[in-house]
Amino acid sequence: MNRLAAIALALSLLPAAIAVSPAVAAADLLIPSERAWLAAHPRIVLGVGAEWPPDVIQVGEGRIAGFAVDHLRLLGDKLGIEIGLEAGPWHAMVAAAESRRLDGLMLAAPLSERRNLFLFTDDFHTVYLFLYQRDGDPLPPLPGIAGLAGRRIGYLQDVLRVRRLLAGEPSLVAVPLPSQAALTEALLTGAVDAAIGAYDLEYWRASNGVLGFGPKRMLPEGLARLGISIRKDWPELVGILNKGLAAITGEESAALRRRWYGRDHLVVGDVPATDLSAEEQAWIAAHPVVRVGLDPAWAPVEFFDEQHRPQGVSVAYLRLIAERLGLRLAFVETQSWAAAVAQFDAGNLDLLPAVAATPSRRQRFDLTEPYVSFPAAIFSAADVAYLGGIEALRGQVVAVIEGDAVHDWLREQHPEIRLLRAPDTAGALRALRRGEAFAFVGNLATTSYSIGASGLTQIKVLGETPFVYRLGMAVHRDQPMLAAILQKGLDAIPREKRDAIYHDWVSIRYRVEADWGLLWRVVAGATLLMAMIGWWGFSLSRQVGRRRRAEAALDALSRGLEQSLAERTQELDGANARLRRLALDLSLSEETARARLAGELHDSPMQKLALAQVQVEAAARDRADPETAQLLGAGQALLREAIGELRTLQFDLSPPVLARQGLAAALAWLAESTEKRWGIRMSYTAGPDLPPLGQEASVILFQCARELVYNLIKHARASRGAIQLQVKDGWLELCVEDDGIGLDREAPHPPQRPGGGFGLHSVRERLALIDGDLHIDSGVASGAPGTRMRIRLPADRLE
Predict the structure, then answer these.
(1) Of 478, 509, 552, 568, which has the maximum CB count within 10 A?
(2) ω into residue 54 within 30 of 0, thus cis?
């Protein structure tokens, strides 16, 4: 929290006001008649598109920052005037300017369609359009719009110049989309083949931590010069603004662009052409497929994901080289790194893309020059004192990955250390956790990644080694032509692209902790209210019983008392119904509060952190001072980690998918996030023809499903689980099942989780609010493994 507070304090000092205040006026820029016109028009307000980062960035509480804000402030300083700026959806800003509720538009293109309503200043800002594609997709054969013939191309529906550009190529299918998020989803899911957009889409992708696509090529037709459009009856203001624009120096403009875009924001996607010799081109033609072997579990350097797709740093480099050189890659999945090396030695593989360059391996393989480096570190249990260096491991049992470079190094240079061979990083960490090894020596990046993904927080970095993984690409000694081709491909990749690959993968962090403080406070209030309801109901039922017994004894003499008792019972039933409604409203209010807090986390702190990250990265490119560069690098790492923490906390508090897409989509997210964070294989299936659910039922059912999944994680010791949602015999059924140790149904109730928790009893109480029930089927009695928990809700309560 201290880190976040420091960043928030820094952000609070950034200029981000909606109104652009003047500084010292340059009095000699304007003539008296122009000053008189300004005096007669003291309020000038322009509109700008809100979804155009980094030109416009929302920083919370209605405030904005960005290139447009700073440039307008600089223009006001030159003229000695104040110009207001309002941000919103671009189509709404255009409509407001056309109706003259606003006086003009900032960063507007001088389109012929708008000349009947607006005048235009001199242009001062150049924007480019980029072709965005999924990573690994081949580039079109031609560089411009003509190369997209026959493809589905997504774009932001409010951007008129892109719409006109796509209309000029009738053979492609233009797909308008309402937002950057919708455009990203369409591209990643295959709903469109590519997307066309400005730099703001790349900024949105980086700020939201989205991987899998990026800008691959700049479109030659996409260049546009932007200025300010002004209502047509104010030609005087156009002349005034042009004087101010002319007074802005080139150095001032360059400083603004460096601040918000960075020095090299235009160098994206286009790797310089690689000159291959005739012999190299002939080799590629004679070898249409290059077989590639990976370490299947060495994330983030290289690995196969759950869909058996190759991923990681080395894969990103290979795909970039293959796109430019025309290589066709075939990734071969093996069981382990040792198995991949064995396949390579047997001649079944042509390339190992991430091999540490050691003297013995340079004799064995034909290696390219290293293209990425990672240090090797010592990992041990958190309760072990700091070990320092490799000498602290003398005589100890140390886990290593079989066939890894560290394995060779320790075996050759430190024979006094007893080595325990493991198939992969996860296996080495398990041996360390079980006490079979005192320490593990491995790649700092891949081991930290594995620790974060598996939740083994009791294992820490406790020492350093002089060994560094300097990774190159290895081919057979009798294939020097392939090594030369790969080296040329690596040499052609610019520094900024290498940095982007590194940060896309190595900056990933998993957090398995969650701050449950807010949740427990809400739970405590709900539990207290449920206890009050239970005690009140129990007390009322006792009173009713006593009165009914008195009525039976005095039936003939107490007809008046019977009528009074009936009235009192009706009042009590009404009170119970009201309390039941209050309990349901409390559950809904809890979810609303969590969603609001998650939204505030995303809209303010996370946007501020993204803005700070852009600024620090821009500053980090000026590396004249090594010490400053080191500090800035550390700041970048802290910012990325803070953004990751906030994003995890946001989704833990309230997954946005529940409010946006409903219960079925939220349950699918719950299954996917459980598998990613806890390592339990979790599936989700939904039956056909699911009816629409109201908010009350959706919120209660998701809360109960999440609690059952948390119980599965904490108590079941399961390796697999499943969530099912279906309609059966007029009932909605939600099932959570696992293959764990089962649940003893003879026990009165399973214990609650340590530190608090709803427990199955409270799940039943919540379901009772919407007339639902919970059934538990466990294999403990029959000896079969696993537990199946089934929630049933009558169809008449679905609304």
Answers:
(1) 509
(2) yes
